[in-house]
Amino acid sequence: MAGVIPSNLTGLFTSCSAYTLIHRYATGPNPSLHRLTTVLKATSTLHSSITTLLAISFLRRCQASWAETDFPSARGSSRKPSTSSDEIDHAGATSNRRIYPDDSCNPPIQTRSSLGNIITAIECGYLLQDTVNLLRAAQLRRGLARSRPKPNLRSFLHYVDKPLLIHHIGIALALLRLQYYISQNRERGIYIIVQFLLMNSSTPVLNLRWWLRTYHPDWKLICLGSDIAFIAVFYITRVWLIGWIIKEYGKSHGYNSAWETYVGALRLPCKVGTGALWAGNTTWWALLVVSVIKRLPEQWSLASNAAKTKYNG
User: Fold this and answer.
1) N- to C-terminal Cα distance for the chain?
2) CB–CB of 155/46 below 8 Å?
3) Could you list the pLDDT tens digit for every one of the 313 residues in the chain?
4) N or C: more exposed end of the chain, with fewer CB within 10 A?
5) Cα separation of 77 and 178, whole Å?
6) Which residues pair with 88 in a beta bridge?
7) Residue 120: which residues within 8 A CB-CB, separation 6 or more?
8) What Cα–Cα distance (Å) separates residue 274 from each residue in 12, 165, 229, 277, 282?
9) What is the pTM of this model?
């Protein structure tokens, strides 16, 4: 119906507005850096928990509906070539372009869902407003600097959490583009996109680790345990998960591994996106492991001394 706002755009606006109001109410008009950071950590824990539960519910509902309905499966049509118009030349002959597997009957690609669309809109709205808060935090850090930096962009960017800012902007732009396709009823692969949002499940462990190191730095063994737990959770949800999703998609076309699927089945935009995401997360994870290993001897020594002091006392 003309004039009706798509539900995903409503979800995007609601998400962005709700999180903005929560932050404004919780931090006040002139928050300290510590208060702003604490509120952001609490909000990200809340958001990641909600989106993870919604994603699990959506994925299970999709799987149940495929089992109950006679949705044609692409399994068995091993590496069937696509015959879409963008891969056939105007004369009707096969062009020299790469032939990809046919996903016209593949449930994870063809399934559409209002719930799935809204989940992606909520994530997009959160990332947009959290990007603004990252810039607010940078402004507060610059204000606390002992030396008075000149008010220019270069000095401002010095105080920005650049890896997180790049992460937010990149994914937010991709999700904004997805919202446009959804509003045009042209979306595909919502099931797989929501699978990727399961990466949010590592955020509560990340924030627990921050809370322990900020408020209870004397709990050395517990802090060390949170480091190890975060390393494991991060790897499973943000590195291994990418390969698993690609491998599961490839199974529907007869591919046996994530790498074989990546090389032979994924279209170029998907290769670029998943490749960049995997490379970025793997690098992030490796840096995390190195930082924990470097601190390990000191943490273990302090924890041992604290335990001996408590025992002797």
Assistant:
1) 76
2) no
3) 455 678 888 989 999 999 999 999 999 888 999 999 999 999 999 999 999 999 999 999 999 988 876 655 444 444 444 444 444 344 444 444 567 888 888 999 999 999 999 999 999 999 999 999 999 999 888 887 756 656 677 777 888 888 889 989 999 999 999 999 999 999 999 999 999 999 999 999 999 999 999 999 888 889 989 999 999 999 999 999 999 999 999 998 999 999 999 999 999 989 999 999 999 999 999 999 999 998 887 766 766 666 666 656 5
4) N
5) 28
6) 94
7) 8, 175, 178, 179, 182, 190, 193, 194, 197
8) 24, 19, 25, 5, 12
9) 0.85
Q: State how far Cα 262 lies from the chain centre.
A: 20
Residue with structure tokens 């998943």? 274
Q: How large is the C-alpha radius of gyration of the chain? A: 23
| CA 201 distance to own-chain centroid | 9
State phi, psi for 158 to the nearest 5 degrees. Answer: -60, -30
Instruction: Tell me the C-alpha distance between 127 and 171, whole Å.
Output: 8
**Tokens representing residue 146 in the block:** 């002992």
Give which of 149, 195, 197 is closest to 171, Cα–Cα.
197
In angstroms, the CA 143 to CA 223 distance is: 30
With beta carbons less than 8 A apart as the criterion, state whether 193 and 59 touch. Answer: no
Please give the Cα distance from 9 to 121 (Å, whole number): 7
Helix (H, G, I), strand (E, B) or coil at 168: helix
Q: How many CB atoms lie within 10 A of CB 286?
A: 12
